[in-house]
Design a protein that fits this description.
single chain; 455 residues; alpha/beta; Rossmann fold; 14 strands
Amino acid sequence: MKITLIAGARPNFMKVAPIIKAIKAHNDANDGNDANDGKISYRLVHTGQHYDKNMSDTFFEELGIPAPDVNLGCGGGSQAEQTAAIMMAFEKELMANPADIVMVVGDVTSTMACSIVAKKLNTKVCHVEAGIRSWDLTMPEEINRMVTDSLADYMFTTSEVANRNLVRMGAILMENKNIKNREENIKENKNDESQVTCSNSNSIDPQSAQKQAFGQLDAQSYSDTDKSYPLDSSEKNVIFDNQDKNSKNNQQKVWFVGNVMIDTLMANRSRFRKPEVWDELGLKEQEFIVMTMHRPANVDEENHLRAMMEQIIDNVRGLPVIFPIHPRTAKLFYGLWGDEAELAKRLPNLHIVEPMGYLEFNYLVERAKAVVTDSGGITEETTVMGVPCITLRDNTERPETCTVGTNELIGTDPAAIKPALDKLFAGEWKKGAIPELWDGKTAERIIKILSALER
């Protein structure tokens, strides 16, 4: 079997690393088989979507990912320009180097663009981290998820919530023999995890977004939120009545396998490396805050960004706030207070640093009092490491980090920051737990399933 593996941006790198490791382990286990039966070859394609060295090359080096077989060099430009550039370059790449499967991970522009190209060239698409939804169609990532999942042949999910989203879209949930059958243990739950939003959110209603995305397909399952997963037989009939009975072998298939991001976290946790800022500032465990911010809703408007920053700094009890600044945020940030002297005067405990490598950044996260962020992936890592996480978003595509983990969604209103930090410093933050199958073995499950399917 030949797999083309796509990496385009920082989050992808943490996800492809364990998959490559699992492929190598699979091939080692098949050494000696006649004609290399069962072995998997892969070609690693870096689209070049993120072109900042600190957010690209460093990750390949730190996580032990081999050099890409090709870099398509498609950095920069608008959403449309970058999508078009990736599609044009990847079409040539895939035609020159055909594959049995194109594997895409996550929800970046490269994920969607390469999925479209693969399907147009009649190549199977495998989506790792399928089915997650924020139901906020103003997010470019949400469009990427919906398009990719509508095209994928094989989908691997991180949670039961993602399974539910895909089954309601018309995909078939496959049995995973690595885990127990939980159907008899699933009870009705009126607080559907898939619809976790901030209480003061102005985001798109989840049910409306579902109907906009998928039309009236399976209307009952969209309107009846009191139903628990899995869907009963009558609901499944609604989904499948209009499908060609002879196309079962081509039906989209879903497996719940866990979270490859957590595979990388667990494999590297003992390797976390102290960054220079630790000694420079004399940081101590549980006595500093880590912050990241990059989403348009938080950083594109000057007054809003200034208000967010001042609320954070004014309410952290004087603790240092370490801010590895994203290139997107840096464009606006430095001019907000006039000059560096005024910035230092107004935000004296804010320490701006360059984007860090994976091992250094997570060294800080693991030892922080808390993390303030608008990222999705960081909420997963803080959940596993048991670190309180305050998320400056109105919705999340990772509801399990809130319902099971240490994450709390407080929205994008600066006024919500003080109550959240007061709760943290009062010692009232929830402890959290690790979601099911976030155990470091997800990539192994994925490769085991694919090797059986394509043999």
